[in-house]
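Hey L., structure's done. Input below.
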Amino acid sequence: MGVPTTVTRSRESTSEPTPSSSPPGATTNPPAQPILAPPCARIDQILAVVFTILPMLALAAAVPMVWGWGLSWVDVGLFAAFYLTSALGVTVGYHRYFTHRAFTANRALRNGLAIAGSMSLQGDVITWVADHRRHHVFTDQEGDPHSPWLYGTGVAGLARGFMHAHIGWLYNRDRTNAARFAPDLLADPDINRVSRQFPMWTVISLGMPALLGGLITMSWWGALTAFFWAGLVRVALLHHVTWSINSICHMIGNRPFSAIGKATNFWPLAILSMGESWHNLHHADPTCARHGVKPGQLDISARVIWVFERLGWATKVRWPKPERVAKLEMAGSDAR
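Output:
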């Protein structure tokens, strides 16, 4: 597949490209609502910097701490538990359920997924979903909030695009208009409430590991190390894994399926991303509940959805159909 042409970023697009699959709640005809909401306040930008940079500093400090002191099995266990909870909240909840409606969830599961996703510190559920639906409507074109292909195809342009897609876009004052891209969530009282409670879930996400670490070890030191590992380092690692889907998985990897844009499959991130790095299939078939559709492609999120279906909490799951997968793969082969 060829390299896309360079585009110029602007606050508004005068025309809207046709997406490969319209995300639920997203308007694809001439807009009744503007694409962007009013710019975010400066305090929101400051908080974005704090809650992305502080965990990154903790991640940078992790190596010397592991080398000499400060890591216990309690920390490891809490890290794993909170990582899985918040990561699956993003992948199963924010992404596959709320954004793409890959299945139908009962009320308890719906609210639980919104809360678990909030604990990832990646923003409230409505904002996250609006941004991601906009990404699918404008994939790797003008209007995509985090495409790495916005600054040219030379070395400098690609480096700048990578940084923009990975983290830089978070500091932009532009805000996706949720009234346009997520009206279904705005109309849901439960999800509105969880969205407004995002600051509280942020405090709980960072404070609960410290509380549990302190109670399990009966020491202030146990509380401190648990806060560091299962709070800050866990958030930082999950941030970078999620951001890597926006950056790496639109630049590096293979593209076996036909999809609009440059989304790739990148196997090294499959486990940490809970299956999200099978990104080429996702852009080829956005509402599919499983992204890793080929033999050997581990997709933990899809397995969790399968468990929810068995328990009766999830219904109408959109599992991949072999004939559709084969058609997409054949179209991808023809495009190459």
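The CA atoms of residues 281 and 291 lie 6 Å apart. Strands lie at 36-37, 104-105, 175-176, 314-315.

-- N.
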